[in-house]
């Protein structure tokens, strides 16, 4: 790869003032971390800047990703040229994993391991799978007895599903989780997730797609492109509080550590989902701080700068959860 190679993408930006979606050519220079944007409709340069103060890394750029450039939330919708497609399609592979119902108390450790191995979590959600959907997920199983056991286990409680993106993601995730049998994993891959957290062939902590084609099918199963809500969520809606892991903490790979701290303090993560907020939604979320704290504009920009992880937190004493959790978080100023 040549120095300061240029990568091209097609991005969309929703312009709030004009209430319209604009489409741009987006050029990213990998060495200088600079970008250029050209309006496709007018064929004129729209923006040129160096992002050294808040760099975007090449691994952040993939189809479906949202990035924030100078307060503008851009969604990458396709590759902009054959060079970029050829270089990145082989590098940024996608795969699907999920944490099984009896290992959700280990989600912090598992998410931490994912970031430590250099994989990105592009999507993440906790949900409950119904029996008919579980049979659909395991439709390729030939052993009826094994299928029934897997379906019963999968539907016994919530699962935490995630789409992983990275170089050779399918194989790397398979290596991370280890052999299906945790006993074999402990003998052959002692540091693997199944060796650490699995109990037996059925209760083996995590799932991983076994190839690119199954990864594509399973990603569509948990994160359908139609955006239709397929599965039941796990929200209680009372006796709980909300926790949001901010973009800078996710980018630094600290999401798993934060979840561990929450669980170690005796709280339960009742449900969790990753998503991206546009500036208008970030402003609405922080509306109570508008005109009250001078950091408000920066708070909004940070919240809209990348993906966030929102969690519903519960505890033993539901009435005390909000106050107790605020004490755990500490003052706003670190």
Largest sheet: 6 strands, antiparallel
SSE run: EEEEEEHEHEHHEHHHEHEHHEHHEH
Name of the CATH first level of the largest domain? Alpha Beta
Distance between the amino and carboxyl termini: 41 Å
Question: What number is the mean pLDDT?
Answer: 91
- Shape estimate: globular
CATH architecture of the largest domain: 2-Layer Sandwich
CATH superfamily of the largest domain: Nucleoside diphosphate kinase-like domain
Which features would summarize this protein structure in a list?
single chain, 334 residues, alpha+beta, PH-domain like, Alpha-Beta Plaits, 3 domains, 6-stranded antiparallel beta sheet, 4-stranded antiparallel beta sheet, 13 helices, 13 strands, 33% helix, 28% strand
């Amino acid at each position: 790869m040549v120095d300061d190679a240029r990568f091209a993408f097609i991005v969309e930006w929703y312009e709030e003032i004009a209430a319209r979606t604009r489409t741009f050519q987006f050029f990213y220079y990998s060495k200088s971390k600079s970008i250029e944007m050209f309006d496709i409709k007018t064929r004129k340069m729209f923006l040129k800047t160096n992002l050294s103060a808040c760099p975007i890394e090449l691994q952040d750029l993939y189809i479906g990703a949202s990035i924030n450039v100078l307060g503008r939330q851009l969604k990458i919708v396709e590759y902009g040229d054959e060079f970029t497609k050829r270089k990145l399609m082989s590098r940024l592979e996608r795969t699907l994993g999920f944490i099984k119902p009896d290992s959700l108390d280990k989600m912090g450790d598992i998410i931490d391991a994912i970031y430590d191995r250099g994989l990105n979590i592009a999507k993440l959600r906790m949900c409950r799978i119904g029996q008919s959907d579980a049979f659909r997920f395991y439709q390729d199983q030939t052993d009826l007895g094994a299928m029934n056991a897997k379906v019963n286990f999968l539907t016994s409680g919530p699962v935490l599903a995630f789409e992983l993106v990275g170089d050779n993601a399918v194989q790397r995730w398979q290596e991370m989780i280890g052999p299906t049998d945790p006993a074999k994993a402990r003998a052959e891959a002692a540091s693997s997730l199944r060796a650490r957290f699995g109990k037996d062939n059925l209760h083996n902590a995590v799932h991983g797609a076994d190839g690119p084609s199954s990864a594509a099918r399973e990603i569509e199963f948990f994160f359908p492109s139609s955006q239709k809500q397929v599965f039941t969520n796990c929200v209680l809606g009372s006796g709980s509080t909300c926790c949001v892991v901010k973009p800078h903490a996710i980018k630094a790979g600290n999401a798993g550590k934060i979840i561990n701290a929450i669980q170690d303090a005796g709280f339960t993560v009742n449900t969790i989902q990753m998503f991206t907020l546009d500036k208008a939604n970030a402003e609405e979320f922080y509306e109570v701080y508008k005109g009250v704290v001078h950091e408000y504009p920066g708070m909004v920009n940070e919240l809209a700068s990348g993906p966030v992880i929102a969690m519903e937190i519960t505890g033993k004493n539901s009435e005390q959860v909000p106050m107790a959790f605020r004490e755990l978080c500490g003052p706003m100023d670190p």
